[in-house]
Specification:
Helices cover 50% and strands 25% of the residues. It is α+β, with helices and mostly antiparallel strands. The strands form 2 sheets. Strands 3-4-5-6-7-8-9-10 form an 8-stranded antiparallel β-barrel. Strands 1-2 form a two-stranded parallel sheet. The relative contact order is 0.07. The model is unreliable at 44-60 and 297-303 (pLDDT under 50).
Length: 316
């Protein structure tokens, strides 16, 4: 009897152990299934999160709807998120931009007036220019007429020197000038008396600044200048045809002679003699007009006149 009882107990223990093992296996299986489901959900969430894009829409609601309709609502289906900017911020930015643009335009206008962009490049015109043609009949009788354009402030100090064959003298004078551009035209403005100036139109100048044609306002005289004393036109294409067409329509245009055989030392000597003669003439006129006043202003005039006479005698 005891043996039977023991056998039955052992069978029950074996059955319980088997049930525990089965329950453990079932628990492990269920846990694995649950973990697998959770991981799949996380993957789906992460994949969907990657597909999400944020678009800041600067357009209004109607334009956004039009865009979505044209693209067949692909963005909406893909999960695009639209964040509209605040209208007040947009308006403020637009107002600021308008103010900045107006200020920029105002500054640009002032800069164009103060520092205008000229078609004529002033530094390229510095140096000696030879007068080769003129409509002034008196000037056409002179020889070796030269205009030296020297820089002075923002313009020129133009020195003209020429030789008068009839008197065998060398003459020199100078004037203040500057370049001015108005309505697409270039002018050589020359300073006159009583704060006035003459606007002399530059009818032609080439890109290499070898030739200039200028019409002078005060006399109406047209002068043709060249970098070389001869009239060998070194122009090509449109510039040459333009230059020749301008000269054809100018009446009474005469050539100015340039004598290369005229030596510089002779010219310089005659120029100095002319200056001394002019100085003596002016002193004499002042003495004849009011001798007392002249000698009161400068008591050393006697010595100056003596020096002038001594120089004259030495030159003779």
């Amino acid at each position: 009897m005891c043996v039977i009882i023991v056998k039955n107990y052992i069978k029950k223990v074996i059955i319980l152990r088997k049930n525990k093992i089965i329950n453990l296996l079932i628990f492990i299986l269920i846990s694995n299934v649950l973990l697998a489901e959770n991981s799949n959900k996380k993957k789906k969430i992460s994949d969907e999160a990657v597909k999400v894009e944020i678009i800041i829409n600067k357009k209004d609601e109607s334009s956004r709807n039009d865009y979505l309709e044209e693209s067949n609502n692909e963005e909406r289906e893909a999960g695009y998120i639209y964040l509209d900017e605040d209208d007040t911020d947009v308006k403020e930015v637009k107002k600021e931009n308008k103010v900045i643009n107006k200020l920029d335009k105002f500054i640009r206008k002032i800069d164009e007036k103060v520092n205008p962009t000229l078609k004529f490049y002033v530094p390229a015109s510095y140096g000696t220019w030879y007068l080769i043609k003129t409509t002034d009949p008196q000037e056409a009788n002179f020889q070796n007429v030269r205009y030296n354009f020297a820089q002075e402030m923002n313009g020129y100090r133009i020195t003209r020197d020429y030789f008068i064959p009839a008197n065998q003298i060398w003459v020199e004078n100078n004037e203040r000038a500057w370049i001015k551009e108005e309505k697409g035209k270039v002018y050589l403005s020359i300073e006159a008396k009583l704060f006035k100036s003459f606007k002399n139109e530059i009818l032609f100048f080439d890109r290499k600044y070898k030739y200039m044609v200028i019409r002078y306002q005060d006399t109406g005289v047209v002068r043709v200048f060249s970098r070389e004393p001869d009239d060998d036109v070194d122009l090509e294409g449109n510039e040459k045809s333009e230059y020749e067409s301008i000269l054809k329509v100018i009446p009474n245009l005469k050539d100015v002679e340039y004598d290369t055989a005229l030596r510089n030392d002779e010219i310089e000597k005659s120029r100095k003699e002319y200056i001394e003669q002019e100085r003596a003439r002016l002193i004499e006129e002042e003495i004849n007009a009011d001798p007392e006043k002249f000698f009161q202003i400068d008591t050393g005039v006697k010595s100056k006149t003596k020096k002038v006479k001594e120089k004259k005698s030495k030159n003779k």
